[in-house]
Amino acid sequence: MLMPNLIALRNHFMRIISRKVLVTLFVCLPFAVFGQYWQVGGALGISNYSGDLSQSRVDMRYTRYHIGLFVKRDLTPHVTLGAGFTYARIAGADSTNKQIDLRNRNLSFRSPIMEGHIRLELNLFDIDDKGWTPYVFGGVGVFNFYPTTRDANGDVIKLRGLNTEGQGLPQYPDRKQYNLTSVSIPFGAGVKFLVRDNLVAGFEIGLRKTFSDYLDDVSKGYADYNTLLAAYGQKTVSYAYRGPGAYPEEGFPRGSQKYDDWYVFTGFTLAYRFGGGSGPYNHWGKQKVSNCPKF
């Protein structure tokens, strides 16, 4: 008789535990969703470019600025979903290059960057427990650019419309006019600190892998001088090669199409947190670690 009693007792306890687990799930899940934080904030820092007109992978001499706005949602203490918009400037020039052949090429550019992105952050720690956390992020972005340079008088020259590499000519069927809007892959790492319950400060480095080799208007070899002159005029020829001496022979490398261009954002972030309260009048309060009942 002892064994059936033990089995009945075990089944009784299992029913009690099952009920409590189900109740906990139904109660906790709504609170877990309601307890998530929203963040709105801004970013400010420097921007750099890497491409055919940079001597090193990142030439700090042509550092410019970026400024951005973002909104984030903390899905869990360790996962954050975000979206943002950034305006930046990038630049590069041959004039400071140590290689004589590249310095003689004498090309230069500057361009605005306007980027929209979505990304996912993975936080190492729960920032509410530790007060800080390192994180990594990755996502996808769409950006717009427009390379320009300056003439001897300092006037702005728009490069894309000049077709400096023979874009659009039947002699170069592989050289289509490049798009000014392209896709980027943002990824990087940073660290953020809980300054107050509703204020998060951070520092991050974010790289952007692009799918365009024309951020600087330079990619392939030189187009033929006479062909370029006949089709687009002297101005195009003058900005295709700005160095001393004779115009290079057709096909001589003007740039390298082996790698697409990159840009990098490095800077500080500041975000205001809200949400996570536990009542209808506490939407702006401090997030609770857990609103789940205990048993």
Automatic annotation (TrEMBL):
InterPro entries: DUF6089, OMP/PagP_B-barrel. Pfam families: DUF6089. Residues 20-145, 174-228 form the DUF6089 domain. This is DUF6089 domain-containing protein. It comes from Chitinophaga silvisoli. The lineage of its organism: Bacteria, Pseudomonadati, Bacteroidota, Chitinophagia, Chitinophagales.
